Amino acid sequence: MKRWLAFPLLFLLWAWVLPAWAESPLRLGVVAVYSKDRALQQWRPLGAYLEQQLGQRVEVTAYTLPEFDAAVAKNQVDVVFTNPAHFIPLQQRNSLSAPLATVITQQGANEIKGFGGVIFTRADAASINTLADIPGRRIAAFSRGAFGAFQLQAFEMLEAGLPVPDDASLVIERAQDLIVADVVEGRADVGFVRTGILESLAGDGRLDLSRIKIINRQNLASFPYASSTRIYPEWPIGVLPQVSEHTARQLTSTLLMLKADTAAARAAGIHGFSVPAEYRAVEEVLRKLHAPPFEKGPEFTWRDIWKRHAIWIIALGVLILLLSGMSVVLFLQNHVILRSQEVFRTLFETVPQGVVYHNPQGLVTAANPAAERILGLSFAQMHRFTTWSWESTILSGSNCSGSTSIASRYSSAAPARWIMSIPPWRTSRSGSSPKGGSSG
Amino acid sequence: MNRRVFLANLASLSALAVSPWLASCSLPRPVVVGFHPWIGYETLRLAREFRWLPAEVHLYEGKTASDSLAALRAGKIDAACLTLDEMLSARSAGIPLSAALIFDVSAGGDVVLARPSIRNLAGLAGKRLGVELNAVGALVLSKMLDAAGLSAPALTLVNLPVDKQLAAWRNGEVDAVISYEPTATFLLREGAQRLFDSRQMPDTIFDLLAVRSDLPASLHARVEGLVAAHFRGLSHLMTMREDAIYRIAALQGITAEEVRQALAGVVLPSLAANREYLDVKDGRLIRAAQTISALMVQHKLIKQEDDLGGLITPAWLPPGED
Fold first, then answer.
1. More exposed terminus of chain B, fewer Cβ within 10 Å: N or C?
2. Chain B residues touching residue A223 (CB < 8 angstroms)
3. A229 to chain B, minimum CA–CA distance in Å?
4. Is A280 at the interface with chain B, CB within 8 A?
5. How far is the CA of B36 from the CAs of A73, A215, A268, B156, B251, in angstroms?
6. Per residue in B2-58, pLDDT tens?
7. Mean predicted lDDT score pLDDT of chain A
8. Residue A243 CA to chain centroid, in angstroms?
9. Within a 13 Å sphere around the CA of B172, how many CA atoms are in the beta-carbon half?
10. What is the pLDDT of residues A325-363, one digit of tens each?
11. What is the distance in angstroms between the Cα of B318 and the nearest Cα belonging to chain A?
12. Is A220 near chain B, with CB under 8 Å?
């Protein structure tokens, strides 16, 4: 190539590459599990790999969980690489994309696509052996929002019918290795950490595994770490809305192409990235723990209620209909009875015949106005006597003719119906009456 | 001790443990289900691990389907995890069974494996082929011979139950085998090559839950609970795949990668797909049963073809949406 041609070609190359570099950098945010320095050490080589492959400057920043939320809210992050329980609320609240890829970690020769939580205590803690022994103990954890170092363990307890540990029982630490130290040195009874932390510390010579005991150990023989919980899919990576679709596609393909033997993968301790995993189980954990973004619990519509409880709703409806029907029948019957009572009350009060009700002992329990008028006694006065004594007391003391039976009695099965009738021609104490009487 | 042998011993112990329930006539008693290790059936052990399996449902764990068939004949179990042909075989022996659930449909899980020197199906001519002399073995053999353009006399058939295949392979007693998981994975690990598999014969090999159709009504709720537990286990396998894979790996004594391979060889029908398969109008299962039944008569595995009456029932499937 002639030298005079080289300059324009170089200029063209510079002009082609420059806009990409002049663009604002792609800002990759990662959560710091141990410390920010360690996170940067782990993930900066991945940033360099992406920079090289995408032809765009990539800035890697490590955040704590609250810092991450704040940075996303201020639009300071383009690419989010975090644990799934943190990813899901960001999707709901900050329009983070669906996962583009899921990381595959590496432990020795093993590719690991999931992680869980560990519940551990000191090996000599004889009284702590099962999940049921945990409530009421001091628990060292990372934060209530930490998926592998609180939420997974809390979910297992919930599934076992135990309460989720409350704030009072938690010793919150700023790094997972400090949680281990708290338990080993007796500042906490139980520790919650992500799977792999214990083995990693033991590998660094910072923990003697014989000094701790795993609670609720799961039978996961070929999983290389001890776990006390189910295994959930590894961290997803996603982009915020300001990232163009073109960049998102390039980023995804670049991540999927990452090989285990590259410097970036080795530094990060990962095998690479796979197509996105299924994260519904993570949502289920968050939902049951009422953790963000499900603090309020699910909102039910009438349709949901119908779908879930149709049989009960139908049964209740039938019951209400039956009760309503019975109420109508009762109302109608009551109306008939009231009408009937009214007829009898009118008859009782207006009939010229005196009518006196008495009980089996002969005590007067009711008397109609005609009886009061005929006998010249008020009901209160009659009430003092028994009907048995009337012949001798009331009638002899009155002007009534004692020879005339004023009444005839009859008994019935129901004592309240004992009744005595007084003929109307016995008009007053002074009056006379023809002979007669009838049972009423 | 070899894990599978250990598991088999455990199975015998569990059989002893459940037999008093069956000896007693007092009701209600547990429902006992014949089980042996197979990727499609593992939803039941997953369900048991998470306590989703009703306490009144016991798994009678055997080494192979033969253990379940023997237990069915002896009246020790109420239901069993079987292939369609195994169910037909039990029905021909007078055991009234209905398919209540399709665990899986083989899609690569049943396989012809051969020594690396045998490059293709035609290369099997004159070789010793180990095959379990049941209908699936006969079915795969028949389809394989068709594909290879060979006839049965061209091969030396060795009756070899699947649990004896690994030892026979190591001892050089066979050149090829018709196998299935997890033994197939063990053989692949020994250097065997895949020549033919059930992907070339779709909707043919079904693994199902066969339930005695004369089961007392008092036990029906337990079978419903068993079927519901399977679907919960299946949901776990679908939504928490990694967790399920590690658990199955531990249960079968194989690696997570081997479980992934085994899962790749089967289709696990959802509740909706089960409804379709178990609908008489669908016809796929009935047609497969007709083919297998005819083949079984041809190979003298049963005396006469099954009348297919009451072969399938959707009655045990959970109600509601899928």
1. N
2. 246, 256
3. 9
4. yes
5. 54, 30, 42, 29, 11
6. 333 333 444 444 444 444 444 444 557 899 999 999 999 999 999 999 999 999 999
7. 84
8. 37
9. 0
10. 999 999 999 999 998 888 888 888 888 888 888 777 777
11. 14
12. yes
Residue linked to tokens 């029907």: A325
Of B116, B118, B121, whose CA–CA distance to B140 is shortest? B121
Q: Say which amino acid occupies B81.
A: C
Whether the CB of B243 is below 8 Å from some CB of chain A: the reply is yes
Tell me the CA distances in angstroms from B200 to A255, B119, B136, B183, B277, one per residue in order.
Answer: 35, 18, 14, 20, 20
As a whole number of angstroms, the distance between CA B269 and CA B167 comes to 33
Nearest Cα neighbor of A425 from A352, A357, A323 is A352
* A158 CB-side CA count, 13 A: 16
Restricting to A residues 228-247, those with a Cβ less than 8 Å away from any Cβ of B are: 230-233
In contact, A265 and A271? CB cutoff 8 Å: yes
Report d(CA B155, CA B140) in Å as an integer. 14
Cβ–Cβ < 8 Å for B130, B173: yes
User: How many Cβ pairs within 8 Å bridge chains A and B?
Assistant: 49
Query: Distance, in angstroms, between A75 CA and closest chain B CA?
Result: 32
Which chain B residues touch A276 with a CB distance below 8 Å?
none
* Predicted pLDDT at B123: 93
Helix axes B220-239, B241-252, angle to 10 degrees: 110
Given A233, A280, A307, which is nearest B242 (Cβ)? A233
B305: exposed, middle or buried (C-beta count within 10 Å: 0-12, 13-18, 19+)? middle
**Helix, strand, coil shares of chain A as percentages rounded to 5?**
45, 15, 40
The structure tokens 């795949």 sit at B241
Do the Cβ atoms of A191 and A179 come closer than 8 Å?
Answer: yes
Q: Is the pLDDT of residue A68 over 80?
A: yes
- DSSP H or E run through A61: strand A58-63
Q: Which amino acid is at A339?
A: R
Contacts of B238 in chain A (CB under 8 A): 278
Q: Stretch B71-79: mean pLDDT, rounded? A: 97
Tokens 């007392």, located at residue = B216
Give me the pLDDT at residue A6, please: 60
Token readout for B216 is 């007392």
Contact in structure between A262 and A275 (CB atoms under 8 Å): no
Asked if A223 lies within 8 A of B255 by C-beta distance, the reply is: no
Within 8 A of B241 by CB-CB distance, chain A residues are: 277-278
